[in-house]
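Appendix C reproduces, verbatim, an entry submitted by the partner laboratory led by Prof. M.T., so that reviewers can inspect both the input and the predicted structure.
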Amino acid sequence: MLIGVIADDFTGASDIANTLAKGLPNEGGLSVLQYLGVPDEPADPEVEAAVIALKTRTIAVEDAVKQSLAALDWLKAQGCRQILFKYCSTFDSTQDGNIGPVAEALAQALDVSGVVACPAFPTLGRSVYQGHLFVGDRLISESGMRNHPLTPMTDPDLRRWLSLQCKTPVGLVDAGTIHLGSEAVREALSMASQRGETLVITDTVTDDDLLTLGKALDGTRMITGGSGIALGLPHNFIRQGLATGKRPPTAGQDGPGIILAGSCSGATRGQIDYHTRRYPSLRVTAKDAMREVITPESLVEFFSENLSKSPLVYSSDTPEEVTRAQKEYGRERVSAQLESLFAQAAALAAEKGFNRIVVAGGETSSAVALRLKTGPLRIGAEIDPGVPILLGRDRPIALALKSGNFGTVDFFEKALEALSNKGEPSSEQL
């Protein structure tokens, strides 16, 4: 195996799996399999990159480190040449972790330092300049991420934010060095290592900067970042003849489809607004979930009543309403209850033949994917940047797991169509 990825959530895992599978235009990428948790069996020898999806973004630091090191042990046993710790392009993490502690633990286990930390992906509007993270033309602290219910980003200075989490100093490779080319970047990372800097933020303003970083990282043992940092990695192995370059398969399922949205991001709320004006939709409030007014069975009944109409169930709400519910019931209780409700509903729906499932939100996607027990997921064609078709190995289910901020306004209907071979069935076909 060439590349092993440890992802801190399921949508992020799909995002970077998509980047590795797609590769560069006119060249292709790698054969990628996404695992839901640490596997208990050896990898297929034909797999060139394995992405292990964990649910460690917001759990206790000690548990996140333990699970990540277990994933590292499995990847090392498969002979991985390069290890990549994947986190969100919006650097979702509180001041207490988990990005820094996990990255430092992995680096220590691999005995490396001067490790790149690059959340940026300019194509998706995430860039880093002078160590500061931007979303579009706004600092991350001025974007919707400042109101994230679990990991609010209130400081755009990634060195300062990461320094609060790390035991060792955090370095920076600035834009001027990046523009000098890959050799200059390699030298800067080597100097950072000599200074005792385990993690090094890298300025990234354009996708060409990502390709420069990819070339500089050829042969390095460990990398950390968002999915963009993987953009140039398949090329390194293809150039050396270690990979031939492949294209993701175009595939799907013929059964009925459903949509579950748990993200509160501005992008997802816009997608919900668009979809609810055109298709049957059902809102689940935190109060409904906590008082069990809405049950998994009632959600599946709603899906069945709207079999061929692309039905949507959503719990997404405004930051003010989310804050109000968290104060009343507790942040962790609200999140856990909604995730459990949606996961149970998805599992019941799958048992009834709904085999195209679109999910919005990292935590919701994690809960749903684990409950469905699909086995490892094959990476299919890209639906929107960062969101591929996912095909279950052990069950005939096609998934789209969308990070809250990803996708065009019509993503939900587009995703259901992409997951389909022949479109929505009639009720007689179910």
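The first helix runs from residue 10 to 22. Additional entries are available on request from the coordinating office.
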